[in-house]
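Technical annex, item 7. During the second reporting period the consortium partners agreed on a shared format for inverse folding records so that results from different sites could be compared directly. Each record opens with the tokenized structure and is followed by the designed sequence. A conforming record, contributed by the partner at site C, is shown below for reference.
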């Protein structure tokens, strides 16, 4: 039986899910910028929600606050969903967010060297897609992320896809060519960013084969990657504070930080967006 506090917190979660559902059908960028007079690296966060909503309450706001705690500024992306989610609308929203962030880097005291993109579930698909040449950073003429951090991601639009995500993003009857273009395991190249991915082996929402297919593609292309599999963990656990997977976040931050210094200098990137 739930305690009063647990019951209240569940009510709050449901309330926020409803707010996110009805407000998540247009582009919006929520900033969590550290204002201490110093420049801080930044991360762009793409919460999940099956391309039907944006799960800010579970995979957006908590991630941003933890990143702030670790010394990073963060931005939660509310990308277009449901009837406005048709490809490439969400990818366009990521590009728009990054252009806004890079353009306003001085105003927000951002160190733009080696940014990262974080994504969970369907947001993991969105983040993963932005690592590709075909529909990601190169396609939009943006700097390459230093790292992608993916939590229990949707990867494929093929046999093992999450049906709700596929329907919202591609419609009922996508062409085989569109399915291939939006299946990340088929779009990985040697220029794909270093990637940290984790999932639980009890996930019955997004088949763990999604993550395994991505890992196989990354390995075959020689892309640096790290992964964690947590026994008994299901889908949508966010930070996983009460779960066996509670350490994943700090590991992901370390993975990103260790690769951040290999990116372009902040001066070079800023000049791109001031030209």
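Designed sequence (site C submission):
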């Amino acid at each position: 039986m739930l305690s009063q506090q647990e019951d209240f917190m569940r009510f709050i979660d449901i309330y926020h899910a409803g707010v996110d559902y009805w407000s998540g059908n247009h582009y919006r960028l929520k900033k969590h910028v550290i204002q201490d007079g110093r420049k801080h690296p930044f991360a762009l966060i793409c919460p999940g929600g099956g391309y039907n909503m944006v799960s800010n309450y579970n995979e957006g706001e908590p991630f941003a606050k933890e990143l702030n705690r670790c010394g990073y500024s963060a931005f939660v992306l509310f990308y277009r969903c449901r009837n406005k989610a048709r490809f490439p609308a969400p990818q366009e929203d990521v590009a728009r967010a990054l252009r806004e962030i890079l353009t306003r880097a001085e105003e927000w005291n951002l160190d733009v060297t080696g940014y990262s993109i974080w994504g969970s579930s369907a947001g993991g698909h969105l983040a993963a897609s932005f690592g590709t040449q075909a529909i990601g950073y190169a396609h939009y003429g943006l700097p390459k992320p230093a790292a992608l951090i993916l939590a229990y991601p949707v990867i494929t639009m093929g046999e093992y896809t999450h049906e709700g995500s596929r329907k919202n993003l591609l419609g009922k009857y996508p062409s085989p060519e569109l399915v291939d273009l939006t299946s990340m395991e088929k779009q990985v190249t040697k220029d794909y960013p270093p990637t940290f991915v984790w999932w639980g082996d009890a996930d019955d929402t997004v088949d763990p084969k999604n993550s395994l297919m991505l890992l196989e593609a990354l390995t075959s292309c020689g892309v640096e990657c790290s992964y964690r599999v947590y026994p008994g963990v299901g889908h949508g656990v966010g930070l996983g504070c009460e779960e066996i997977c509670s350490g994943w976040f700090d590991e992901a931050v370390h993975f990103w930080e260790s690769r951040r210094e290999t990116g372009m200098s902040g001066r070079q990137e800023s000049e791109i967006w001031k030209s």
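The first helix runs from residue 4 to 23. DSSP finds ten helices and seven strands in the chain. All partners now use this format for quarterly exchanges.
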